[in-house]
Amino acid sequence: MYSITVNASGSYTLQARLASPTGSATFHVEIDGVNVTGPLNVPNTGGWQNWQTISRAGIPLSAGPHLMRVVTDTGGPTGYFGNMNYLRWVAE
Description:
- This protein is mostly beta strands.
- The protein has strands at 2-6, 10-19, 26-31, 34-35, 40-41, 52-61, 64-74, 83-91.
- It has one domain (2-91): Galactose-binding domain-like (Jelly Rolls), CATH 2.60.120.260.
- It has no helices and eight strands.
- It is elongated.
């Protein structure tokens, strides 16, 4: 779980920088216990260090402190999720 602070209420895009030699895993992000992204797919990037950024737009966030949690829903074909370099919230 991560503590985050949203500076201004509004709509945000979540960017996740991921790498996986097989892909197929899924995850979602929760804010204060609520799934705000729905399922996100980890892409097959061809390697553990071949990074690709995926995005999910239109996520409403209110100003102030929040608890963020990244939840793995399914593993890839080898049972592994992949590598996550960062999550970034960008105001729309």
